[in-house]
Design brief:
This protein is of the alpha+beta class and about 130 residues long. The protein contains two helices and five strands. It has a five-stranded mixed sheet, with helices on one face. The longest helix has 19 residues, at about 5-20.
Length: about 130
């Protein structure tokens, strides 16, 4: 396969994959800042502030530390003075397994099984600007 044909075929796939991993920001943008204070609870913010935006960061293949750094960098780029980060878990899938015993008349005599939720970790970031 020619290189140009391969790029035409695989290019849109990789672009879609990269954009699926990118966090979406919802809010206002201000001039970039150099420092962003990090909070893990809104009650920890002692300064008067307003919320300027939010974003969700999926863990995917990244570490939680890398996600935190990405949230801080986004906060700087959006002009935030601080970011409040919350770790959440969302059920992405449920895995079930089980066994059953059937007699000769095709009636189920007994069953046993387990169900396990497969969770996906996310960071929800709330960006703030001091008053």
């Amino acid at each position: 396969m020619k290189k140009s044909t391969m790029i035409q075929v695989l290019g849109p796939f990789f672009i879609a994959l990269m954009s699926a991993c990118a966090p979406s920001y919802f809010g206002n943008t201000y001039p970039a800042t150099q420092n962003v204070d990090v909070y893990l609870d809104a009650a920890d913010v002692k300064k008067d502030h307003t919320t300027i935006g939010t974003a969700k960061f999926d863990k995917g293949l990244r570490s939680l530390e890398a996600l935190q750094q990405k949230a801080i960098e986004m906060g700087k780029a959006k002009g935030a003075d601080g970011v409040i980060m919350q770790l959440t878990e969302e059920v992405a899938a449920t895995q079930q397994s089980g066994t059953g015993i059937v007699n000769k008349k095709s009636k189920v005599i007994s069953t046993s099984g387990t169900s396990v939720n497969i969770k996906k970790k996310k960071i929800v970031a709330t960006f703030i600007k001091y008053s």
